[in-house]
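Input record, target 12 of the design panel.
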């Protein structure tokens, strides 16, 4: 079984991981380019997001360096969710600061427009009048994104970078790519900081279960906040 825990690996395992990383990134980029040639429907948007998370999951699992897997701990999962609550609260603060800075330099109307643009796709899918679309979007937020993004950016990328760098720059670089691929403007800093904290949780605990649980908690709280406004 492949390990869910942080470990140094062989040069062959490193090469395989690098190939999987660049292969998945190429497929993600190609998908984005292809999607740019048409105006996708709600179902197509949901399908593209699901495809992206499946790619991340595949890369995280098959690109990981082999080793004996340890049984996930329920206690670690609870710790991860508790950390996720803290990350969510910090996101709210950073989001408010980002909005205030943008409003100061650009005006409130333009800052609000950027914020709505950041949230547009997720809100459109979650609030869809089609139950299949809305439920599918919620499933992606609560399961697909925590699994796919943590397995890929933390489980795979952080491990690859740590073969060449110290923990801090490895976590920061992985978080930077994580934030860039969300294509946010006002929400870029909160997502970047979240990526750093999730990476630190992974490095500190040595278990991918912890950032997965934290990511789940962040998305679950964000989803509840969104649904409460409807």
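The sequence produced for target 12 reads:
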């Amino acid at each position: 079984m492949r390990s869910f825990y942080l470990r140094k690996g062989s040069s062959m395992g490193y090469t395989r991981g690098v190939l999987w990383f660049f292969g998945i990134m190429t497929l993600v980029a190609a998908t984005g380019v292809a999607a740019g040639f048409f105006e996708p429907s709600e179902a197509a948007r949901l399908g593209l997001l699901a495809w992206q998370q499946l790619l991340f999951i595949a890369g995280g699992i098959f690109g990981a360096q082999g080793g004996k897997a340890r049984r996930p701990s329920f206690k670690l999962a609870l710790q991860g969710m508790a950390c996720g609550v803290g990350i969510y609260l910090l996101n709210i603060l950073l989001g408010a600061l980002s909005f205030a800075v943008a409003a100061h330099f650009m005006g409130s109307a333009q800052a609000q427009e950027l914020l709505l643009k950041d949230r547009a796709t997720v809100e459109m899918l979650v609030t869809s009048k089609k139950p299949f679309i809305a439920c599918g979007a919620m499933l992606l937020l609560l399961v697909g994104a925590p699994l796919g993004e943590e397995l890929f950016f933390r489980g795979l990328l952080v491990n690859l970078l740590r073969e060449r760098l110290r923990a801090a720059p490895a976590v920061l670089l992985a978080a930077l790519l994580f934030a860039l691929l969300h294509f946010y403007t006002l929400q870029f800093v909160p997502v970047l900081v979240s990526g750093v904290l999730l990476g630190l949780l992974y490095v500190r605990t040595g278990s991918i279960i912890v950032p997965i649980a934290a990511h789940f908690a962040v998305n679950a709280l964000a989803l509840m906040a969104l649904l409460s406004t409807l």
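The helical segments are 11-35, 42-62, 74-106, 108-126, 131-162, 167-180, 188-205, 209-228.
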